Amino acid sequence: MNREQDERLNKLKASGKTVYSISRLDTINHCLYEAYRTYILHDRGENNVYAMLGGKVHDVLEAIVNGEATEADLQPAVDEELEDIELLGLSFPKGRNGEDTIRAGWIANMKHFCSTYKSPKNKGDLHTEELFIYETPKGNVLQGYIDLYKENKDGTISIYDYKTSSMYKGEDIKAHGRQLVLYALGKEQEGFKVKSVAWIFLKYVNISFLGNKTKKSKNKTEILKTIERKKIASEMADYVEQDLLETGMDEFEVDMILTEFKRANSFDVLPESVRDLYKMTPCVYEYELSDEIKAECIEYIDNTIEMWENCTEYPPRSFTKLQKNGKEVQDTFFCQCLCSHGKSCTYLQEFVDMYDKEEDKEESMFD
Question: How confident is the model at residue 114 (pLDDT cuts 50, 70, 90)?
């Protein structure tokens, strides 16, 4: 993806104005030491597997919408990027028992996505990777690129952001939601009316039942389940079994079909009468866009920039967190797997060494 330098950005930078991004602000709030390394020392560190693979998928989806690629290009692009990652010596984090379960799960989810993705219709209404520039009432300027937005028939636009990550939960929804809110603020400042903002979580699908188990209203079918793609068959097996039995099949035949369903992880192997009962659609997760949420986002932007521009010390983030039971536990997944400076962070290494020694000491008490 080539992003040409926009004249608006050139003018802002020539005037001496600092132009921020939401990812920069999030880094500042997440870890001042990471922000110091990245934005003051201009040390970008190392890439990680999730950023590389996510970036590649984004690029191909953009090319498909722009008529420069087809659905058939998705899987080869992912496979090529996986090979490049191995050549670079990068790896997915290991599972609980040191196994490659996380890597296998990501690949299974994205393989299903690549094999079932359908290019959107009415591409003339779609816009990809467009630059926006937003200025807060206090004069702070942010810029970014929107993955995808759609022109609606009523004159509004809907904004979408592709995600190859897991779905957000709890406080993470609000934290990541600010990016979508900023997109809306930027387009509104350009004169657009934003109808909605949403994430498209590529690892997941919505499953709807088209029979009489769900109700229809306003021509929209109720979603039965939102499922991680690799788990479609395992989570839908009970539903499918009941539907197969209702067709009059004997239990032996039903068991054979269910076995194939679980092996293929696809509705395609089911008899047409059962297959047609289900509809699979992309997992589009809308985020609320209220005046209060917009105001909170603007406050977050202004407060973060003020704090950063007056900052004189850059300590690392806390490497522990409290669980609901009050127990303090290690919280270094981001640092070890996602931070571009994780491998060279002396603070992190000192903590991990100390934490390991404390665990060894506790275990030895029970030997």
Answer: very high
Which residues are within 8 A (CB) of 152 and not within 5 positions of it... i.e. 6 or more apart? 125, 158, 195
Question: What percentage of the chain's residues is helix, strand, coil (to nearest 5)?
Answer: 50, 20, 30
User: What residues contact 203, with CB distance under 8 A and at least 6 apart?
Assistant: 106, 109, 110, 113, 164, 165, 166, 167, 228, 229, 283
Q: What element of type H or E holds 252?
A: helix 251-264
For the chain, state the CA radius of gyration: 24
pTM (predicted TM-score): 0.89
CA distance 310 to 256: 67
C-alpha span between 213 and 205 (Å, rounded)? 19
User: Nearest Cα to 142, choosing from 174, 111, 181?
Assistant: 181
pLDDT greater than 80 at residue 89: yes
How far apart are the C-alpha atoms of 308 and 178, rounded to whole Å?
A: 18
Angle between helices 74-87 and 101-116 (to 10 degrees): 160
User: What token pair was written down for 67?
Assistant: 């008529």
Tokens (6 digits) for 229: 């793609």
Sign (positive/negative) of CA torsion 180, 182, 188, 190?
A: negative
- The mean pLDDT value for 63-75 works out to 96
Q: Which two tokens stand for residue 354?
A: 């100390």
Cα 77 to chain center, whole Å?
18
Angle, nearest 10°, between helix axes 251-264 and 232-246? 160
The type of residue at 31 is C
- Domain segments of the chain as ranges: 319-364
| The Cα angle at residue 25 between residues 160 and 346, in degrees rounded to 5 | 120
Q: Dihedral of the CA atoms 263, 267, 270, 272 (nearest 10)?
A: -170
